Amino acid sequence: MCEFCVQHGAGKKWYLAAQNYADKLVQSQERRLFIESVFKDYRKMYGRQVRIADVALKIPLVKKYALMKFNAFFTSDHSGHVVSLEDAVSICGIPGRVSLVDCPCSKYLFGKDVKKCILFGTTAEIVDNIPEFAPVQDIGAEDAAEFLKGLDEQGTIHTIWTFKTPYIGVICNCNNRDCVLMHLNQRYKDLNVIREGHEVAVVNKEICNGCGNCQRACQFKAVTINEKKAKINNSCYGCGVCRNFCPVGAIQLVPRIELELIK
Ligand code: SF4
Ligand code: SF4
To answer: Across 40-167, where does the E strand assignment appear?
Structure first.
C-alpha cells in the first residue's frame, strides 16, 4: 500500500478504484485544460522540464528547492506509477471508453506516429479534438488486453498517469530508451517522476539456470547474477518484464508488502 492507496483507494490499490477514472472529474475546466496542454504542448512542457532539471539539480544551492517543485508536480499534477500487465488489463475494464492514441514522445521527439498509449473516457474525447492526435482509435477493453499482452512480451513497461491526481487518464507503454519521463526518472533518482509498482519480482533459485536473460531485459538495473543464479535487488520497479524472458519460468511477481514483511 502506498500514500496514493491511502488517499485515493481506501487502503486498496488506488488505481483499481473506479472513482479515479470517473468522467465527472473531467468536468473541471482546470483538468481539461491540463490534459490538452500535456498533448498539445508536450515538447515545450517536457523539453523545458528536462532542461531545468539538468541545470537545477546539479547546483547544490537550488537542488533542494527544485526537487520540491518537481516532486510536487509529479505528485499532484502528473503522477506516473508502474503497473503489472495483470493490473493494466484490469484497469482497461474500468472506464467505459478505451482508446489507442499516438505516443507523444515518439511523435514529438522522434517524428514517428506509434499508436501505443491507451486513453480512457473523457481524456480520449479531449485528445480526439487535438488535430495532431485525431482520430483516436476506440478499441474496447478486450482488444486493449490483447494489445497490452503483445507489448508486454516485447519488454514494454506499463505506467498509469494522472492528469491532476487522482484522475487517471492514460496507460503509457514504453521503455527507458524512448520515453522522456522514464529517462528523467532514471537520470535523477531523487525525482519521483515514476513510482514503483505494488509488486516486486522474485526468483525461484531452484530452477534458475543463470542464463542472464532477465538481467538483459530489466531496464531498472535490478538484476545481478551471482554464482549462476539471478538475484533481484532493491531497484526492482515490479514491471514484470523479466518474466517474459525467463526460459524456465523462474520469475514471478509478488506483492511488495509481502517481501518487506519477510525482510
Ligand atoms: S527485476 Fe523484473 S520486475 Fe523488477 S524492474 Fe527489473 S524487469 Fe521489472
Ligand atoms: S532468465 Fe530465468 S533462468 Fe535466466 S537468469 Fe533470469 S531467472 Fe534465471
So the answer is: 80-83, 98-102, 115-120, 137-138, 157-162
Q: What is the mean pLDDT of the chain?
A: 92
Distance, in Å, from the CA atom of 96 to the CA atom of 138, rounded to the nearest integer, reads 11
Cα–Cα distance measured from residue 108 to residue 113, given in angstroms and rounded to the nearest whole number: 9
Q: Can you tell me the distance from the alpha carbon of 224 to that of 17, in angstroms, rounded to the nearest whole number?
A: 35
The pocket around ligand 1, CB under 6 angstroms, is made up of 201, 217-218, 220, 222-223, 232, 236-242
Distance CA 71, CA 193 (A): 7
Q: Spell 38-58 as b/e; 16+ CB within 10 A means b.
A: bbbebeeebeebeeebeebbe
Cα angle 72-186-210, degrees, rounded to a multiple of 5: 140
For the chain, the structural domain boundaries read: 3-195, 199-262
173 forms beta bridges with 158
Neighbour-count burial of 258, counting CB atoms closer than 10 A to its CB (0-12 exposed, 13-18 middle, 19+ buried): exposed
Question: For the domain 199-262, what is the CATH code?
Answer: 3.30.70.20
- What pLDDT, in 10s, does the model give residues 140-190? 999 999 999 999 999 999 999 999 999 999 999 998 888 888 888 888 888
Please tell me the residue having the least CA distance from ligand 2 atom 6. Answer: 214
Q: Indicate which residue's Cα is closest to atom 2 of ligand 1.
A: 242
What is the rounded CA–CA span in Å between residue 233 and residue 225?
Answer: 11
Q: Using one digit for the tens of pLDDT, what is the confidence trace for 186-207?
A: 888 888 899 999 999 999 999 9
